[in-house]
Design brief:
The complex is a heterodimer of chains A (212) and B (234). Chain A is built from three helices and eleven strands; from the N terminus they run βββββαββααββββ. By secondary structure, chain A is of the alpha+beta class. In chain A, a hairpin with a 2-residue loop joins β4 and β5. The longest helix of chain A has 12 residues. Chain A is globular and about 50 Å long. In chain B, a hairpin with a 5-residue loop joins β8 and β9. Chain B starts with a strand and ends with a helix. The chains are: A alpha+beta (212), B alpha+beta (234). Chains A and B meet through β5, α1 and α2 of A and α1 and α6 of B.
Chain lengths: 212, 234
């Protein structure tokens, strides 16, 4: 657990993302980006892109392979598909974040829960709406496997993937320093079928500080 | 009866649209092979293999007989209908130019002709390019024949000796699937020498999955996945 020294009152940007909404924003090299789990155990599905080349984007496999560790926490370099460091996690009061569980979708909900659940609001719909509204040429090809901040998805020695009780709590946060200009895309997860968020999606807060 | 047999040389790439109703068997010829692989719906390649959906639908972090590879649209691209290995890696990813240079040094085409050092990422991009796809289509890959152990603290370790000479895995195509693969070494393989291994490919016609197909019945999620896939062809 590494606590930040930054003062929220001095942040240049602060915004609350309501439950189930998407958010997209540019973060400049050297700026610090914080996500606060306001109510605890909220899944914050997050993607990052090189702001000057969207085809160079967050890579879950390169990130875990580069650090030879499955879990994201302080010190983790968030790697891009082209091998660039997009951001580095510099503070984390939760302790572990997932990048294997991906984002929910209408279609994956049909498989995981019930074919009749197709209609339910899902992260990958939020991602698509956000990039369409943003209108910078991104399409579904630009939605790779994401980070799930505040989610605990351990792998067992036998190779099982488990969805464990959350280890986050109200007010826990994760903070990253942008190592280059990036675009951040968040879906504040609307999933109502999974106990990981107590079936109750809640808002989160995002803050940005100028480069030190 | 095999309709097509072909070896993939060490470090080489291969791609094919594996038709629904056929199966691809990959055999590790010498032991210790790694086959990095990507999968797309050939009719609409923006529908592609989705690592998280595959893992979370089946509660797995390894692949073997009885499991399936899901697309992002809830459909089954391929089923693993046979496997003598027991563990194939879905999380370790691919090597890239920088990793290969740091680990293996330098060996160019000018120096060693076709034994020049290849890496997973560049190999994927070249083969994707042949089908009009590119960096935006580079997705999480499967590593057949390799295994990565995960410790309680999340530490990932390459598991040496996972696959022996003659070991095989069979993929039954449930859609018309663009398969992109190469035999570059696993990125977490600590071996300091550039020494990728060859594999043999074999394609045959197979019956469609029956009502009691083991991959279909292995989990209730997969029963729904097969239903969703079969509806695509209505």
């Amino acid at each position: 657990m590494i606590v930040s020294t930054l003062d929220p009152a001095k942040a240049k940007y602060s915004e609350e993302i309501p439950a189930g909404e998407a958010w997209i924003h540019e973060i400049r090299a050297g700026e610090t980006f914080r996500i606060v789990d306001l109510h605890g155990n909220q899944a914050v599905d997050t993607l990052f892109y090189n702001a000057h080349d969207y085809s160079d984007r967050y890579s879950a496999q390169d990130t875990i392979r580069a650090q030879a560790n499955l879990y994201l926490t302080t010190g983790t370099k968030l790697m891009s598909t082209a091998g660039n460091v997009l951001l580095t996690i510099v503070a984390d009061t939760c302790g572990r974040h997932d990048t294997l569980g991906g984002a929910c979708a209408n279609e994956s909900n049909m498989v995981r829960y019930d074919i009749a659940k197709r209609h339910m609001h899902a992260c990958r719909s939020s991602f698509l709406k956000a990039i369409t509204d943003w209108d910078h040429g991104m399409t579904k090809r630009d939605i790779p496997n994401n980070i799930n901040f505040f989610m605990n998805v351990p792998v067992t020695p036998e190779g099982k993937l488990t969805f464990e009780d959350g280890i986050s709590e109200p007010g826990k946060y994760v903070e990253m320093r942008a190592e280059r200009d990036v675009v951040a895309l968040i879906s504040n997860c609307p999933q109502l079928n999974n106990p990981c968020n107590a079936y109750n999606p809640t808002p989160v807060q995002v803050l940005i500080w100028d480069a030190a | 009866m095999s309709l097509w047999d072909e070896a993939v040389q060490p470090g080489a790439s291969w791609s094919h649209v594996l038709k629904r109703g056929t199966a691809l068997r990959i055999t590790d010829l010498e032991g210790g092979a790694n086959v990095g692989a990507l999968f797309y719906n050939f009719e609409c390649p923006v529908e592609r293999y989705n690592m998280p959906d595959t893992l979370k639908a089946q509660h797995i972090a390894r692949l073997t007989k009885g499991f399936v590879l899901y697309s992002d649209m809830g459909r089954v691209l391929c089923s693993i209908t046979d496997d003598s290995v027991g563990w194939h890696d879905p999380i370790g990813g691919a090597s890239n130019r920088q990793l290969a240079a740091e680990k293996y040094g330098r060996a160019t085409y000018q120096e060693v002709r076709n034994d020049y050092i290849k890496n997973g990422r560049d190999s994927f991009l070249i083969e994707l390019g042949k089908w009009g796809l590119g960096p935006r289509d580079l997705i999480s890959n499967v590593n057949f024949f390799s295994r990565v152990d995960v410790a309680a603290d999340g530490g990932m370790t390459y598991h040496a000796g996972n696959s022996k000479a003659g070991d095989y895995v069979e993929l039954r195509a449930e859609m018309n699937v663009l398969v992109i693969l190469n035999t570059c070494q696993h990125p977490l393989d600590p071996a300091p020498k550039y020494a990728p291994k060859p594999v043999q490919l074999s394609i045959r016609k197979v019956d469609p999955p029956a009502a009691d197909d083991p991959c279909r019945l292995s989990r209730p999620e997969n029963e729904r996945g097969f239903t969703v896939t079969e509806r695509y062809f209505l």
